[in-house]
Amino acid sequence: MDMNGAGGSVLMHKYEIGRLLGKGTFAKVYYSRNIETGQSFAIKVINKDKVMRVGLMKQIKREISVMRLVRHPNIVQLYEVMATKSKIYFVMQYVKGGELFDKVAKGRLKEDVARKFFQQLISAVDYCHSRGVYHRDLKPENLLLDENGNLKVSDFGLSTFADSKSSQDGLLYTTCGTPAYVAPEVISRKGYDGAKADIWCCGVILFVLVAGYLPFHDSNLMEMYRKIGRAEFTCPTWFPLDLRKLVVRILDPNPSTRISMSKIMENSWVKKHMVSSKNYSGISQQRTLGIPNNLNAFDIISLASGFDLSGLFEEENQDSSKEARFISKDKSLDIISKIENIAEKINFKVKEENGGGCMVVKMEGLDEGRKGVLEINAEIFEVASSSCIVDINKKRGDTMEYQKLWKNVIKPELRDIVWTWQGKKQQHQVEVLEHYL
Ligand code: ADP
Ligand code: MG
User: Fold this and answer.
1) In the prediction, which pLDDT does 338 show?
2) What is the CATH superfamily name and number for domain 100-271?
3) So what's the architecture of 294-436 in CATH?
4) pTM of the prediction?
5) Per annotation, catalytic residue among 126, 137, 163, 391
6) Which residue range or ranges hold the NAF domain (predicted)?
């Protein structure tokens, strides 16, 4: 029996939890099996207290949204999310072959093998970028290998959506990532472009795969940062010329002149022996999974919306009647103005705020109710260029008063921007989806 209380137990009468596969900062990952079908999974168990203490709950919620949205042969698939009072469980695809890191630790890879991994990495990262998702923590530890030796990117804990509204210029402002792999502009705390920062990480990974050691390394951290800032590195003499040129183009300290993803994919070293890119598109994978190919990522999240997240919000909201969530196909600005219209109708004050990764519309009643003024928040998360997740929460005041307002005015008024409500009712649809997985 594991100290965490997870090992050896059965989760939600459905998954038998087995041995520990790996550990991260907030999470432990266990091997597990569906009791009924015997199918293998990896379950990431996140300690909610720890996450809450450092204020990362929003990140975790975002990780869930990201992983639900993303479906690619080189990205670890998330199947289900469950939560109890103290823990969050991510049921993921089990990736058998361990970390790419372990392979590299045993010595550098042959050029062709490194190329294959790099092609798969670029394919996964480009797929995410095209959906506005940036990983920001790309490093060999987060690259897993499946039983066929194919790469699977994991760990979206720190990834984020492009959120041009959270900063005027669309640049990300959080400093994160691991020193050895982190891009110079991320270190210097200038706002940065998530895509360019990921490209840098891919360059460091490429170097490590072929050379067998890090391009930037120093026992003194400041010295290491200095080397990264100037892109001070030397390729081993045996690096072929085309590879050397590519690495130099990627590890360009200036993000604005650094090579783009599309240019990387056209590069002659990268393209050599490239498996038909069709095999890497999300669409063709959906087909092989047997999911009708007219489903897009958007449909998939809405199908998946029956994931029971009630436990996740428990601490903030004991009662689900205080929180509602829906998906909208309208633009975030239109959603905000609709919500502001509603606030006006019910004679509430409104204030817009940047919630770090989402837009928050704060609404406050003017009259004292039974438990003081009512305060309602609407959080709008942009999850793709064409969709938003909207959370409506009661923050303060009497629940009954809120529910009356919700039922009589807010919910009916939202009708024209709601594409689909998220809730337990759709559970059966998840089962339909799971059938195809
Ligand atoms: P964290 O977000 O805390 O860093 P990770 O998602 O990186 O957690 O997982 C920690 C470790 O668990 C990984 O480095 C890997 O060894 C193992 N692991 C994670 N996901 C899987 C998976 N889907 N299949 C097998 N092992 C996994
Ligand atoms: Mg990790």
Assistant:
1) 93
2) Transferase(Phosphotransferase) domain 1 (1.10.510.10)
3) 2-Layer Sandwich (3.30)
4) 0.62
5) 137
6) 290-314
